[in-house]
Amino acid sequence: MVEQQEASDDAVMTRIGQAIMLLHGGDREEARNRFGALWSELGADGDALHRCTLAHYMADTQDDPGDELAWDLRALTAADGLRTAEGPGDQPGGGAGPGGGEGRGGARPSEHRDTPAVRAFYPSLHLNLAADYLKLQRPDSARIHLQRARAAADSLPDDGYGGGVRAAIHRLELRMREQ
């Protein structure tokens, strides 16, 4: 039964990946349609990593900056929901950074299987929110999320993804200084 559930989870991520490929291939409308259908299937109680990933990319299909912000906030909410499931010491605002801290009684709670994947999303999630707020001419909110992106970037690996996110954070910092 567990193997069947894992295969089902992989199927959802595969479908998300297919929509991402459409988006990156330039078919924003079809990607948006597929993400929308998947979002309806997942529902509010769907897997947090799936909801986070889907909302993160659905934001990129939006034409309106306000809609883009709404999807990026959904992605952050899904990521925070997974962190809340880790335990009290790892909750946002609980004094620990992404993946840090201890649970009750000084023992680290058991880590949810998707925690490392969601933790790697935080720099990009906050970067996207900073860019959204900048588009909406809300520089103070943009600055807050840019600072959070920079802080969360410490947990990124030194690879192509990590370097790309760090470079994007730097570019947005420069852009904000010029304004």
Structure description:
By secondary structure, this protein is mainly alpha-helical. It is built from seven helices and no strands. The protein has helices spanning about 1-25, 30-40, 50-60, 65-85, 115-135, 140-150, 160-179. The protein starts with a helix and ends with a helix. Mean pLDDT is about 85; it is low at about 85-110.
Give the class from helix and strand content and strand pairing: mainly alpha
The overall pLDDT average reads 83
Q: In percent, how helical is the residue content?
A: 55-70%
Could you tell me the radius of gyration in angstroms? 17 Å
- The shape, in one word, is globular
Give me a quick take on this structure.
This protein is mainly α and 179 residues long. 70% of the residues lie in helices and 0% in strands.
SSE layout and pairing:
Blueprint: H1 2-24, H2 28-42, H3 48-58, H4 65-86, H5 115-135, H6 139-152, H7 160-178
